[in-house]
Amino acid sequence: MKKNNRFYKLSNFGMLGKIVIGLSLGVSISLNLWQWQKNKSNEAGNIGSVRVEAVIDGDTLVLDGDVRLRLRSIDAPELENCGGREAKEELEKSVGGKTVRIKEQIIDKWGRPMALIYVDNDLINEKLVGLGLARFHNDTTTETERLKAAYNKARRGGLGIWSEKCQQKENKKNPKCDIKGNIDDNARDRKLYYYPGCAQYKFTVVELDMGEQWFCDKTEAEKAGFVKSKTCPN
Hints:
Blueprint (H helix, E strand, L loop, with lengths): L1 H41 L5 E10 L2 E4 L3 E5 L2 E2 L8 H12 L3 E9 L5 E7 L2 E2 H7 L4 E2 L7 H14 L9 E2 L10 E5 L7 E4 L11 E2 L5 E3 L2 H6 L3 E2 L6
Helix pairs in contact: 3-4
């Protein structure tokens, strides 16, 4: 009889163990399914709605949770460059303190998150390039053609950074300072200067929004890190 009672208890324990294991497995599967569904909803970078806590500059936000996010496909001037302050002010007006929708988020080559940003149905990335307050960088998104069209229209219209305020062939403000400091688009550390008599001088545009500068003499240009172009005479 004692053997039977012991066997009965062991049988109950075995059944209880199976129930516990079954419940644990069920919970695990449920959690994994929930995580999978969450990942599926975010796999295209569509994070949903988030509040904007601050604006760093014309293309960078701080979201709720102290997360930085850049506007994808565009590049606004640095704050100290031509158009930089205006770009930041426009972005603050458009998203500051508001809830935005984040779509198609990716990580750039420097490890920074970037995405398309919407307020209601307004694409803020498009707004910045459309006002001439940011440059467009070709990137494959669902809004590429829309952004490109806004960018081309702003350039043709001479808006914002595309105006003579930021794009200059002549230094009308100070004609005596006529040396052009130019930064290579493909190699940002390659800085050249041109003076009247250089082969490319007439065609070189000083893009002040990109940090290019006018100089009054060669020494000033060289102190700023620019070197004489090989197309210039000695």
